[in-house]
Design goal:
Layout: H1 3-18, H2 39-42, H3 52-67, H4 70-78, H5 88-91, H6 101-125, H7 143-158, H8 163-179, H9 185-203, H10 206-221
Helix pairs in contact: 6-7, 6-9, 6-10, 7-8, 7-9
Length: 231
């Protein structure tokens, strides 16, 4: 191969590596098609007020709030940011946004899509938060639970050897919303389902698969993943 061809090849590879992640779709979503996943159809409605299910929800939140310690509440609050790097304890000390900018951008887009999808469902049902929770957005379904399940599904595809630890952390992340008195258990269950549905749809999207491969390559270069393709 001539020096000229080598130079051209290097420039092409550099341009590919530095190219931005795929741009947002006209709908404002990156990887989700909102027409393919209507949560108002796919999820059950929240429990009716004063129903046995609603009373059970209230009792669960009341019991969790009464049993928590100040240290547990502080820990839950400090670990409530919706960031993939919440999972660093399950992955490795080197799992940081500074070291993994492509992965960070990829999961930011996943989180944005899921948050937008959940926001529409919250507006549809307008379920009030548990008593005393000063939150503007509705309670059903839980956006944090949706974040936890969708992120755990995708991250465990990238890091299959860490799957059990990732999902264990995700469950705690979601359950903490009840401990903090911000959500009912049925909010968490519906949010987890919504995040799972969202991940399933995203896994089939060409832009998602392209950006998944870029994140996978970055994680592999950082020695944080074993080779595995999106199924």
């Amino acid at each position: 191969m001539t020096a000229r061809r080598i130079t051209v090849l290097v420039l092409v590879l550099a341009a590919t590596a530095l190219a931005p992640l795929s741009t947002a779709a006209p709908t404002g979503y990156y990887y989700l098609d909102p027409h393919r996943i209507d949560l108002t159809i796919l999820l059950p409605p929240p429990p009716a007020p004063n129903s046995p299910e609603a009373r059970a929800d209230i009792e669960s939140v009341t019991a969790a709030v009464a049993a928590r310690s100040p240290a547990q509440l502080l820990e839950a609050r400090e670990a409530s940011a919706r960031s993939v790097f919440f999972f660093a304890p399950s992955v490795a000390p080197g799992f940081t946004p500074e070291r993994l900018p492509v992965t960070a951008a990829f999961f930011d887009r996943i989180s944005a899509d899921v948050a937008r999808l959940i926001g529409s469902a919250k507006e549809y049902w307008e379920r009030p938060r548990p008593g005393g929770a000063g939150k503007r957005h509705g309670s059903y379904p839980s956006g944090h639970a949706a974040f936890a399940s969708s992120t755990a599904i995708v991250l465990s595809q990238l890091l299959p050897r860490k799957r059990d630890a990732i999902f264990s952390q995700a469950r705690i992340f979601a359950a903490n919303r009840v401990l903090m008195g911000l959500h009912y258990p049925t909010d968490i269950a519906s949010g987890w389902t919504a995040g799972t549905l969202a991940a399933y749809v995203m896994l089939q999207d060409p832009a998602f698969r392209r950006d998944f491969a870029r994140a996978q390559a970055e994680l592999r270069r950082a020695n944080l993943t074993a080779a595995r393709e999106v199924p």
